[in-house]
Amino acid sequence: MTLLRILLLCGSLCCSTLAQAVPTDDVMALLQHQQQTWNQGDINSYMQGYWHNDQLRFVSGGRFVYGWDNMLKAYQQNYPDQKTMGQLQLKVSDIRMLSNYAALVVGEWQLQQPRGVSSGVFTLLVEKHDDQWVIVHDHTS
């Protein structure tokens, strides 16, 4: 193989790699979907961003919730309607890719509800399962 062919092949591979979706874009799309479905008052669609598994872990307020079903139940109890859910704003500070299939996401959240505004920070472990990025660990304070 000539040097020119090798260079052309390498250039072709680099360009095709750049054309593929960047994992951080997929993770951001997941979080944008989370924010949008929350603001629409759709907890069921919001929960699709979480790993539907008993090993899903949610940490907040000094408490642990394990499992997708338990997390859904807690959300339904604490946010029974769209008015109670209010409007969520997520601000991602950093997405650190741990591998091609895992990312650590750090950011801030703000929730505007009829009773006032609350805010805090979050750290998420996001993994790719069955070609879909999902939150497998959520620590929100």
From TrEMBL:
Q: Which organism is it from?
A: Shewanella dokdonensis
Leader sequence range is 1-21
Q: Which UniProt keywords apply?
A: Signal
Tell me which Pfam families the record gives. Answer: DUF4440
DUF4440 domain boundaries:
28-135
Record protein name field: DUF4440 domain-containing protein
Q: Does the keyword Signal apply?
A: yes
Do you know which InterPro entries this protein is assigned to? DUF4440, NTF2-like_dom_sf
Does the record bear Signal in its keywords?
yes
